Amino acid sequence: MLYHYNDIVVLKTQHLKLGGLAPQLAKSMVDILISEVGPRDGLQSIKNIMPTAAKQQWIQAQYEAGCGEIEVGSFVPAKLLPQLADTEEITRFATSLPGLSVAVLAPNLHGVKAATRAGAHKISMPFSMSETHSVKNVNKTHKQMLAEIEQCVEFIATLPSDTRPALEIGLSTAFGCTIEGEVKESTVLKLAETVVSLGVAEVGLSDTTGVGNPRQLRRLVEGIWHHCGRHALHGVHLHNTRGQGLANALMAVEIGLTTLDSSLGGIGGCPWAPGASGNIVTEDLVFMLESMGLNTGFDMEKLIAVRDIVQQALPDEELYGFTPAAGLPKGWPYEDSKASILQATG
Fold it and tell me: How high is the pLDDT of residue 45?
């Protein structure tokens, strides 16, 4: 559902006055939920370690810019990803921000249990559609991963209903693998159907290696909806390795997906996917959607300002993004964008 432009303006102009309530209201009003994955997917792929205080500042600032969901870290051994060793502390900090959906990644039952203890609202569990990538990434075959997922589902079912985190299985390398090559769409659909049959409420499509194209995305989404039900897939995780990130994001929105992952400054990637660059740039994605008349809940100027926090904490890292480099157009948002919202609401 779209909302009247005046309502959005009021929300954004009252952001500071509303304090912690503003992101909660923004999330309830957005047309497309943008899930910021930079603090996890972005930081896991760089050598430099961002200080915990800087991570908290980043999350706080992006929350105040209107972000409704942030993936704040990954529950993996610190020796494997020292960049994310403070995930438990970061998760507890993030869950103190009213209305923010706090997501984390957990590759196994041990991680799911740790994420639950830390209070995460959403847990994403990666399941590589390329078995070669699965063994390289989490040291498990498909059969072993399915058994692990089943254990996680059973564990979450034992928790009180009001404290259960949402478990999403991320179908990574669903569009192709730089190690194995082509991943057959029939394999993705079969594995998605198997995962849902285990009791998982939702799966997510992930273009881990940035090889996907819009028509492929449409086939995969519609195939999963056909085999698993429309309720089983709402979002997609995209990389911009070959410059098709925003094209894929546009297709996702046009066919009805409502959650898109992106990373501030486009940082990130997969350590076990050679040649894979970062995620699509949050700033560019927000600009595209807002220019189309879709509400993301973000204040663009505040969002762009968050880059300063990240750059100061990681001075050697390059941040990407066409919109921050060019600046917002004069008079933006344009009257046509306002009109598209008004026409959609009748």
Answer: 84
**Residue 177 known to be catalytic:** no
Cα–Cα distance for residue pair 298/332, rounded to 1 Å:
14
E-assigned strand segments in the chain: 33-36, 69-74, 101-105, 122-128, 166-172, 202-206, 233-237, 259-262
Overall domain count for the chain: 1
For the record, the structure tokens of 333 come out as 């948002």
CB atoms within 10 A of CB 168: 22
- Does residue 221 register a pLDDT over 70? yes
Which segments within 108-201 are labelled E, that is strand?
122-128, 166-172
Mean pLDDT score of the chain, rounded to an integer? 88
Per-residue pLDDT band for 322 (boundaries 50, 70, 90) equals very high
Rounded Cα gap, residues 64 and 37, in angstroms? 16
**Residues in the chain, how many?**
346
User: Of the listed 67, 152, 228, 270, which one is catalytic?
Assistant: 270
Question: CATH code at 44?
Answer: 3.20.20.70
Q: Provide mean pLDDT across the span 60-65.
A: 98
Q: Quote the pLDDT of residue 10.
A: 31
**Domain extent at residue 168:** 5-345
Q: Could you give the CA distance from residue 145 to residue 271 in angstroms, rounded to a whole number?
A: 19
Instruction: Please state the rounded mean pLDDT for residues 13-42.
Output: 64
CA separation for the pair 126, 105 (Å, rounded):
8
DSSP 45-112: GSSSPPPHHHHHHHHHHHHHTT--EEEEEE-S-TTT-GGGTTHHHHHHHHTTSTT-EEEEE-SSHHHH
pLDDT digits (tens, 9 = 90+) for 222-240: 999 999 999 999 999 999 9
**Alpha carbons 241 and 210: distance in angstroms, whole number:** 5
Average pLDDT estimate for 199-220: 96
The answer to whether 286 touches 301, Cβ cutoff 8 Å, is no
